[in-house]
Structures are given as structure tokens and as C-alpha cells.
Amino acid sequence: MDAPTTPTGKHNPGFHDHFSGVSANYAAFRPSYPEALFVWLASVAPSGRHAWDCATGSGQAALGLARHFGRVTATDASHEQIAAAAPHPRIEYRTAPAENSGMESGSVDLVTVAQALHWFDIGRFFREAERVLVPGGVLAVWAYGPVTVEGAETGATVEEFYHSEMGPYWPEERSMVDAGYAGIELPMTELKHPAFSMSVSWKREELLGYIRTWSAVSRFIAKNGCDPVAGLEKRLFPYWNDNSRRTVAWPLTLKAARARQRKTG
Fold first, then answer.
1. What single DSSP character describes residue 234?
2. pLDDT of 229 above 80
3. What is 20-258's CATH number?
4. How far apart are CA 167 and CA 170, in angstroms?
5. Cα–Cα distance between 234 and 23 in angstroms, integer?
6. Taking phi first (over 0 means left), then psi (-120 to 50 degrees means alpha), and beta for anything else, what does residue 102 get?
7. 8 Å CB contact between 259 and 138
8. Nearest Cα to Cα of residue 146 among 249, 14, 235, 247
């Protein structure tokens, strides 16, 4: 949920905010990350003292970290997203850009970025992460790709909406997510990790609420003055017109690395 880069990797001046206008929906409908992911992150961090969740949005990852770390600092460049975040006694929410967190050097055991690295000036953020991590601390970034929905007709309808109708409205940075962050290398020692799956059991209204948080939907509405999800809802109705739940899933890509031990003497 942070300031994006240009296609050349240079930082765009100002914060391009695709999500503040849907902060309430973001908090209500964005999926949670698997508990197994947070268990693994806690197991590889040098201690459970302090984690930084960068570009926290409304706090989905921060809440998972708070079950395993004594202190979590959660930052986002969007005031509205921070305002919508769920409070927790071990989470301190702050408004700050990814590349200039204001945190002390060598102060955190784990830095996480969930579904947001593609918005950053990546080089500057990596330097910031290296600065704030303790020796041997861990940087972990992850993202989930295009949604799949149970049911052949339902799934095909959502897929067509994602690619064809919303295709022209996705910010260019979104292609990095669809590619599973291919080509991005963390500037530290890579950590091997297990595979993690991400799925939920949703009613139709929950799926539509999630789709309304897409940056492409916000851009469509800003340009055309109408809600494209209303049309999607009508097309889904013949295949999903009751209160039944369907499996909704996303491919989850994780990259993790350990900071180098600092030389002494």
C-alpha cells in the first residue's frame, strides 16, 4: 500500500494512493494470510522481540505477526489505511513511507512486506530494510496473484472480468505480482522455505467486497463514474444465487532472506 515506482524503477514523486478510498472494504474483505506462514517467520527470525510490517494496509499481516512477536511496528503511507487498521496491544501503527520508516537502525528482527513491494522504490526500500534489521535479521516479502473461484462458470466469469474488463485499468506495477515477483532478488542471503497456500471459504457478497478493493476497480470508477462490479454480480447470479460458500484461492509467492552479520573489530 505504498508509493509506487515507475516502470524504470525510479521513485515517483508523491504518493500514488490506490486504496485509501476503499479503506473500510479493505479492512473487511481482504483475505488473511495463513498462520503457517507466521509460524515459519517466527522460527527463522533471530528473536521474537520486534517485527516491522511495512505497508501494512489495514493490518492483516501485522495481526498475524503479533501472535508471535512481543512488539510489532506497522507502517503505511496512507493515513486512511492506518485509521482503518484493527487495534492490538502489541501493534504500534504509524504513517510512514516504506523507504523512510523513521525507525532506529538495527532495531528489528523481522521486516515483512505483504502484497506491496511492487509499489515501492525497491532499491531504496531494500537499503532501509538492511539498515533497520539486527545482524542476522530476516526480510520477507510476499504477494498473491490472480484469484480463482470454485465452480467452472463462476471461475471463468471472474477470470474474464480480471483480465479483459479490468485489464486496461490495472496499474503497470501489478504485472510484477502476476509474475510472482520473478526477477526480484533480495540483497541478502536467500532462505529456503516451505510452500504456503492461501484460500478462504466465501459467500458471493464477500467475494464481490474483495473485488471492490482492487486498484483497477478504483481506477475504473474514477474514469467512468460507475461500478463495474455491479455488472459482474449480475453475470455471476445464474451460477451463484444463494448463500452457499465457495473456495476462493490465490497463488502465494514468498521471498525471504537473512541479513548479513556485521563485522566487528
1. H
2. yes
3. 3.40.50.150
4. 6
5. 25
6. left
7. yes
8. 249
